[in-house]
Specification:
D-Maltodextrin-Binding Protein, domain 2; 4-stranded mixed sheet; 2 domains; alpha/beta; 11 strands; 347 residues; 17 helices
Length: 347
């Protein structure tokens, strides 16, 4: 049966062949034709994208492998989601917004190999986004850059960086932009503390922070992903506008097969194919329609007008990668904890 599935995948397309070759060594047996269910544990603001992507992949998989597939979703703050997987939530795949959370599944849970990021292209991140600032229509508080969020009297909504990748990106965006703008390294913690002190409530994830800002009408600004802005405008009306700061962080959205769980479920091959299809033209087009920046150059070119050119830096370039950023900024007692303590706000 493994050979027949392999032949179908290899005949289907190059991307499927790549995922098959990468995952055959850890597939104890191919899943039997019939039906299979995958659980995708994902970050808070990816619901709509994966809803549409799942429908496309299910149809593709049925045509390619002859198997009926169902995909269940779980969404929340990225770190909380990973903690749930570590505590027993049986994810076949994880689709997050930062590599550091997936690294925890390898280092703490031994649920996938340490080199998981090498299993797919682009460091296993099929899409990107940017951290941007959403303000009220007309920008009455004249917010144009990260430093403006620290001005006296400004209220800014940022998801909790201890539980949310969205929040960590916001923090790192402000820190890295200060560096790029020439702020002395010794002065950056105070600049970040002024922003943190202006956060009236730390919601656990990006979608909750959006509700606080847009529905409860709390705050002058919301830091969120670029991909969220059209959804907010569509749901809450044209009462807001987006600010692209002069510098911001490129948010990369990595994915991985939770191999220990997938082997136990017999879902390694469909799980790997599910993720690899994110790089297909169809997967990239769906991402672009959901305002995620595609990796494929041709797809990105077709949507060039939808994604403004912005000066960005990556976590790797600015902070030495997510492991180092986590250790220096977000571990217990690290810089973020020191800053919030100095600012006198809850962690």
């Amino acid at each position: 049966m493994l050979r027949s599935w392999g032949t179908a995948l290899l005949r289907g397309s190059v991307f499927a062949a790549g995922c098959l070759l990468a995952y055959l060594p850890c597939a104890s047996a191919a899943p039997e034709p019939g039906s299979v269910t995958l659980l995708n544990v994902s970050y808070d603001v990816s619901r709509e994208f994966y809803r549409d992507y799942n429908a496309a992949f299910i149809a593709h998989w049925k045509a390619l492998a002859g198997q009926t597939l169902a995909v269940n979703q779980s969404h929340g703050g990225s770190s909380r989601q990973v903690q749930s997987v570590l505590e027993g939530l049986e994810a076949d795949v994880v689709t997050m917004n930062q590599a550091n959370d997936i690294d925890r599944l390898a280092s703490q849970g031994h649920l996938l190999p340490a080199d998981w990021a090498s299993h797919f292209p682009d460091g296993s991140a099929p899409t990107t986004s940017l951290s941007v600032i959403l303000v009220r229509k007309g920008n009455p508080r004249q917010i144009h850059d990260w430093a403006d969020l620290g001005r006296p009297g400004i209220a800014v909504l940022i998801p909790n960086p201890k539980t949310s990748g969205n929040g960590r990106y916001a923090y790192l965006a402000a820190w890295g932009a200060a560096r790029r703008s020439g702020v002395a390294e010794s002065a950056i913690p105070a600049a970040i503390a002024r922003i943190i002190a202006n956060v009236p409530v730390f919601d656990g994830g990006g979608r909750a922070a959006t509700t606080t800002f847009a529905q409860r009408q709390i705050g002058d600004a919301l830091v969120t992903f670029e991909s969220e802005v059209p959804l907010i405008l569509g749901e809450f009306g044209d009462h807001f506008e987006v600010v692209y700061p002069p510098w911001t962080v490129l948010a990369e959205n990595p994915v991985a097969v939770v191999e220990t769980v997938a082997r136990r479920h017999g879902t390694v091959l469909p799980a790997a194919a599910y993720l690899r299809y994110l790089w297909s033209d169809e997967g990239q087009e769906i991402a672009a329609r959901h305002h995620l920046r595609p990796r494929t150059a041709t797809v990105l070119a077709r949507h060039k007008g939808e994604f403004p050119a912005v000066r960005t830096f990556t976590v790797e370039e600015m902070f030495g990668g997510w492991k180092q950023a986590q250790r220096e900024h977000f571990d217990d007692g690290a810089r973020y904890d020191q800053i919030v303590t100095a600012a006198g706000v809850p962690k």
